[in-house]
Design a protein that fits this description.
6-stranded parallel sheet; 8 helices; L-2-Hydroxyisocaproate Dehydrogenase, Chain A, domain 2; 16 strands; globular; 311 residues
C-alpha cells in the first residue's frame, strides 16, 4: 500500500511514524509546502526502517509525488492554539483542502481520502465536495480519538484494561460530542449493572464529568505542549490498517450521512464498518432520547460551521 501524508507537521509526522511501526505500507510519501521539513521527517523515519517493515520513505513539496497513492492522509493546515476551538480553524483549513485535493486526485484518482485536519467534520465535508468522490471513499478521523479517550477514562475509573471497555463517542470531534452511555459495557456488563467490582454505576454527574474530561483533553494537551500528535497518529494508522487489511473494523469515523436516524445532510461520526471499500456500512446504534437529541444538536453545530465557510 502506498500512503501519501499531506502535511509534515507534528500530526503528519506522528501518523507516518505510527504507519511505519504498524507496517501498514511499503511506500510512504511525506508532502509539505516546506520541502526541507518534509525531507527531514522522511529521513528521520527512514532511519527507523531497520526495526520495522521495509518501507520506501520519501519527502517532497510536490503533490505529483502522491501519484498512485492508495490512501491520502490530509494532515496539513493551521493547528489549534491555546483557547482556540477546532471550529475556529474552519475557514483557513477548508480553503487549504479545496486547493490541495484536486491536485492530489489528479495523480491519485483511486485513493481513499482520510481527513485528520481540524475541524475534521467540516474539512471532511469540504473534502467530499472538492473531490467528487463517492462518500464511502472520504473518511474523517472523527471521534475515534475521543472514543479512545473515553474508554481510557472509564478503564481507570473501573480498574480494568482499556481494551475491555466498549463505549462510543459520536457526533462532532469537538465540543458538542456525545457519549453513548446507554450502550456502554465492560466485559458484556451494561453500565446500569456495574457492581462493586467495577466501582458501581456512575451517576449522571459523574458521567458529565467524565465526558467533560474527554472534551477538554485536547485543550489541556495543546496548552501543555502545543499540539496533540501521538494518539491521533496512532488513530490514523489504525484506520488505514482497517482499510488495507479489509478488516471490517467498527470505528466511529466521520462520514457523510444523508439520513442517520432522521439526522443528515452533513458529516459526523457514528460507529461504522471500515474495510477495503472505505465505508462498508454504518451501525444503527440504539440511543435514548437525550442521546439522540444531543446527536442532532451536534450535527446542527457542524452544519452551521459548514454554512459559515460556504459548504
Amino acid at each position: 500500500m502506498k500512503i501519501a501524508i499531506v502535511g509534515a507537521g507534528e500530526v503528519g509526522a506522528a501518523a507516518g511514524y505510527a504507519c511505519l511501526l504498524r507496517g501498514v505500507s511499503n511506500k510512504l510519501v511525506m508532502c509539505d509546502l516546506d520541502r526541507a521539513k518534509a525531507e527531514a521527517q522522511a529521513l528521520d523515519l527512514a532511519h527507523g526502517v531497520q526495526f520495522a517493515r521495509m518501507t520506501d520513505i520519501s519527502g517532497t513539496d510536490d503533490l505529483r509525488d502522491c501519484a498512485g497513492a492508495d490512501a491520502v492522509v490530509l494532515a496539513a493546515g493551521a493547528k489549534q492554539k491555546p483557547n482556540q476551538t477546532r471550529l475556529d480553524l474552519a475557514a483557513d483549513n477548508v480553503a487549504m483542502c479545496r486547493l490541495v485535493l484536486p491536485e492530489v486526485l489528479a495523480v491519485a484518482p483511486d485513493a481513499l481520502i482520510l481527513v485528520v485536519t481540524n475541524p475534521v467534520d467540516v474539512v471532511t465535508q469540504a473534502a467530499l465536495d472538492a473531490s467528487g468522490l463517492d462518500p464511502s471513499r472520504v473518511i474523517g478521523s472523527g471521534t475515534v480519538l475521543d472514543t479512545s479517550r473515553l474508554r481510557q477514562v472509564l478503564s481507570e475509573r473501573c480498574g480494568v484494561a482499556v481494551q475491555n471497555v466498549h463505549a462510543y463517542v459520536v457526533g462532532e470531534h469537538g465540543d458538542s460530542q456525545v457519549a453513548l452511555w446507554s450502550s456502554a459495557t465492560i466485559g458484556g456488563i451494561h453500565l446500569s449493572d456495574w457492581g462493586d467490582t467495577l466501582g458501581g454505576t456512575p451517576s449522571p454527574e459523574e458521567r458529565h464529568a467524565m465526558l467533560e474530561d474527554v472534551r477538554q483533553a485536547a485543550y489541556r494537551i495543546v496548552a501543555g505542549k502545543g499540539a496533540t500528535n501521538h494518539a491521533i497518529g496512532v488513530v490514523t494508522a489504525r484506520i488505514i490498517e482497517a482499510v488495507d487489511r479489509d478488516e471490517r473494523r467498527v470505528l466511529p469515523v466521520s462520514t457523510y450521512h444523508a439520513d442517520y436516524q432522521g439526522i443528515g445532510g452533513v458529516c459526523f461520526s457514528v460507529p461504522t464498518i471500515v474495510d477495503r471499500r472505505g465505508v462498508a456500512a454504518r451501525l444503527d446504534v440504539p440511543m435514548d432520547e437525550s442521546e439522540h437529541a444531543a446527536l442532532a444538536a451536534s450535527a446542527e453545530a457542524i452544519r452551521g460551521a459548514c454554512a459559515s465557510v460556504g459548504l
